Amino acid sequence: MWDKGLKLARHLGMYVLILFSGPLTALEFTDAFVRGLPPGQKNTAAFFTVANAEATAWTIARVSTDAADRVEMHRHEHNNGMMMMREVDELTIEAQSSLQFAPGGLHLMLIGLKQPLREGDRVTLQFTNVAGESVHTEFPVISVVNEHRHH
Ligand SMILES: [Cu+2]
Fold first, then answer.
1. Which residues contact 73 (CB under 8 A, 6 or more apart)?
2. Ion ligand 1, residues whose Cβ is below 5 A away
3. If you measure from the C-alpha of residue 64 to the centroid of ligand 1, how many angstroms do you get, rounded to a whole number?
4. pTM, two decimal places
C-alpha cells in the first residue's frame, strides 16, 4: 500500500514536472558535441558530461542515432603503454552524480555515418536505460579543428 502510494505520488510529481517544465529528462547533458571530421570519414566520436539528478541510478544500456548505423560506448585504456579502445556494454550514472565522456577516456563512437557531419549540424541521440526508458538529446557538431576552443 505504502509502495503504491509512493508510486502514485511519483507519477503525479512527474506530471507536474511535465506541465511546468516541458519534457521531463532524467539526464542533463553539458559540454556535448559530436566531432566533425573531414568528408570521407565513416566513424566519429561524441563527448559530453551527463548528470543524473534522480534519486536512483541510471544505467545506459544502449545509445542510438539516425545519423549513423550504430553507436557504441567506448573506453580508452592504457595497456602496456598502448592506448586501446574497448567497448562498454553498460554504464551506470549513479544517483545525483555525473559521468564525463572526454577525449582519452569514455566516448561514444558513431559508426557508419549516413552523411558527412558539418560544423553547425545537430545530431539527435537517444539514450536508453536498462529499464527501457529513453532520453533524447541533441548534440551540436564541432569540427575537430575548433574542438580545443570548447575545453
Ligand atoms: Cu572509440
1. 60, 63, 87, 88, 89, 91, 106, 107, 108, 109
2. 74, 85, 109
3. 15
4. 0.80
